């Protein structure tokens, strides 16, 4: 489903970060990427999520090269296929948890019927993830673990093919980290969503089907 070939990325001050890197992910795979700080995990996630472009190499998603997409097509690729979960939850403080979750729904024009369906799905997912009681709260009124679970629901709303989680448990205590890890795995197993998780946590990495480490700009098994 997702195939990265010979991906390289350098930055002026830093030099080569990703060096002819290859990665293949099938539907329903769960992949952990570990590696020292500065090894390029976030750089790789940003490239997969089309937030950044590699200097060379190719990225195929369902056999189409996303690097040839226009910016509109890239936005569509992101909105429809990728769910992002980052370390810092990036919820907007002036919107309620439910409004924050539904925000991506407004990125594309939809009918009233589609909106009603999305709202129903939001309610269902919030229940599933266990945050129904938070729907009318503002982000500053909920804990870090709760905010991170809200971020997971937001990432799931568009029924993405892939969830990219960059250090999703980095700011959580061990109990909340474990809960979020288990929820990610549940979504992977029950909805067949491909999970790519960059993390320093070996506990979280060990929950994934495949564990790769990023070293010298390449992924190793
Ligand atoms: N936009 C940028 N401009 C310049 N240098 C960058 C940029 N993004 C990343 N880098 C550099 O690339 C290297 C890899 O950074 P990256 O954030 O991908 O590492 P990481 O593996 O995610 O680290 P961490 O575990 O600390 O999150 C670092 O040396 C970083 O300073
Ligand atoms: Mg990082």
Cofactors, ions, other ligands: adenosine-5'-triphosphate, magnesium ion
Low-confidence stretches: none
Q: What global shape is seen?
A: globular
Overall residue-averaged pLDDT value:
95
CATH class: Alpha Beta
Number of helices: 7
Largest sheet: 6 strands, mixed
Structural class: alpha/beta
Query: Gap between N and C termini, in Å?
Result: 19 Å
Query: What series of H and E elements makes up the topology?
Result: EEEHEEHEHHHEHEHEE
CATH homologous superfamily identity = P-loop containing nucleotide triphosphate hydrolases
> Can you name the CATH architecture?
3-Layer(aba) Sandwich
Strand content: 25-35%
Radius of gyration: 17 Å
Number of strands: 10
Strand order in the sheet with the most strands: 6-7-8-3-9-10
CATH topology: Rossmann fold
Helix content: 25-40%
Description:
- With 221 residues, the chain is an alpha/beta fold.
- It has one domain: Rossmann fold (3-Layer(aba) Sandwich), CATH 3.40.50.
- The protein is built from 7 helices and 10 strands.
- The strands form 2 sheets. It has a 6-stranded mixed sheet with strand order 6-7-8-3-9-10, with helices on both faces. Strands 2-1-4-5 form a 4-stranded antiparallel sheet, with helices on one face.
- Helix 6 links the parallel strand 7 and strand 8.
- The longest helix has 18 residues, at 112-129.
- The two termini are 19 Å apart.
- 39% of the residues are buried.
- Residues 41-42, 166-167 line the site of magnesium ion (MG).
């Amino acid at each position: 489903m997702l195939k990265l070939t010979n991906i390289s990325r350098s930055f002026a001050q830093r030099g080569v970060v990703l060096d002819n890197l290859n990665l293949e992910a099938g539907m329903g795979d769960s992949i952990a990427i570990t590696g020292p700080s500065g090894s390029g995990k976030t750089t790789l996630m940003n490239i997969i999520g089309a937030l950044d472009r590699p200097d060379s190499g190719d990225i195929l998603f369902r056999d189409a090269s996303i690097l040839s997409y226009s910016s509109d097509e890239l936005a569509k690729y992101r909105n429809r296929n990728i769910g992002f979960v980052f370390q810092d939850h990036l919820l907007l403080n002036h919107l309620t948890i439910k409004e924050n979750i539904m925000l991506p729904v407004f990125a594309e024009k939809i009918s009233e019927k589609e909106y009603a369906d999305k709202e129903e799905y939001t309610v269902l997912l919030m229940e599933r993830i266990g945050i129904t009681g938070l729907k009318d709260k503002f982000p500053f009124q909920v804990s870090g673990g709760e905010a991170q679970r809200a971020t997971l629901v937001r990432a799931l709303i568009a029924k993405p093919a892939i969830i990219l989680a960059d250090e999703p448990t980095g700011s959580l205590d061990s109990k909340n980290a474990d809960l979020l890890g288990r929820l990610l795995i549940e979504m992977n197993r029950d909805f067949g969503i491909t999970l790519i998780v960059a993390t320093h946590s070996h506990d979280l990495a060990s929950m994934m089907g495949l564990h790769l480490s990023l070293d010298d700009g390449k992924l190793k098994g």
